[in-house]
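Thread title: Can someone regenerate the structure for this chain?

I was given the following input by a collaborator and told the matching structure tokens would be attached. They weren't. Posting the sequence so someone can regenerate them.
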Amino acid sequence: MIANYHTHTWRCMHAFGDEREYVEQAIRGGLKILGFSDHTPVPYKDGYVSNVKMTPDQLEDYVDTVLSLRDEYRKDIEIHLGLEVEYYPGYIDAMLEMMKPYPIEYFLLGQHFLGDEIGEPYCGERTYSSDSLLRYCRQTKEAMKTGLFTYFAHPDVIFYIGDKNIYARNMRDLCETAKELSVPLEINLLGIETNRNYPNPLFWKIAGEVGNDVVIGSDAHFPENVVNEDALRAADRIIKENGLHLLKTVDLINPLERR
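Best answer:
Regenerated them for you:
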């Protein structure tokens, strides 16, 4: 592992540690590239505040902090400024407008909620609802078709425990859309470390059959998450067992140049 583009900061309210600690851990772990991609702020209406994202008034400080570290550590590691973005159809244009003044380099697609989040369950909650699975696949396929996203983080986050045939059919369609659009799929190390419902073995079997490109993402919420050798070995097994094509680095897509 020489690059990790999936790194959070304390601003999302569920990550911990100073940004400098993440950078120094990445250097100790042998990374050549570190991308910060904290949960993007959303200009919600009616005073709604998400408890899993930075707020709009924190965006400038986030940008300034990452850019300062990029300059300070430029001889030691390549640092990039990104965001993990929920594709919310009702807010995506306002989000992009809010980000125009800032030199954001890339978006990761990380769909934790359906619709526009408000009143919707977390995708990582167990569900037998095939409708939720269908909505997840429909919404993320629409997101990928915008061309805004460098890659799709934890695409198997949806915790559907219903009919496996329904899951396989819809996830195959999602994987085929990603392949057609050249959107890499992320094997998420945090999911491995914390024994979540992802990585999902059936999903990665399908991705191997479809021939998707994959990338490994730390999804670091603590400095020690940036490089985890045990989780890396588990990810390597997933790659080898399913014949997946691993990208060690990715070409960053600047979302602000796409709109």
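The chain has a mean pLDDT of 97.
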